[in-house]
Amino acid sequence: MISPRDTMTGRPANKITFSSTKTESAPTEDFYASVRPFDNFSQIAHFDRYLPLPDDWFLGIADVAQSTKAIKTGRYKAVNTVGAAVLVAITNALPNLSFPYVFGGDGATVAIPGKHLDTVKYALAQTAAWADDTLDLLLRVAIVPLWAIRAAGHDVRTARYAASDNVSYAMFSGGGVAWAERQLKKGQFGISPATSNAKPDLSGLYCGFGPIPTEHGTILSIIAIPFGEQRSYAALVADVLALIEFSSHRSGHPLPERGPLPPWLGGKLPRLLSKRLPHTNLLTALADGLRAIKTRAILSAGIRIGRFDPLDYRRNISKNTDFRKFDDGLKMTVDCSLEIADAIEARLLSAQLSGICVAATHRQTSAYLTCYISSNIRSDHVHFVDGADGGYAAAAAKLKSGKAASMREEA
Question: pTM, whole model, 2 decimals?
Answer without folding.
Answer: 0.86
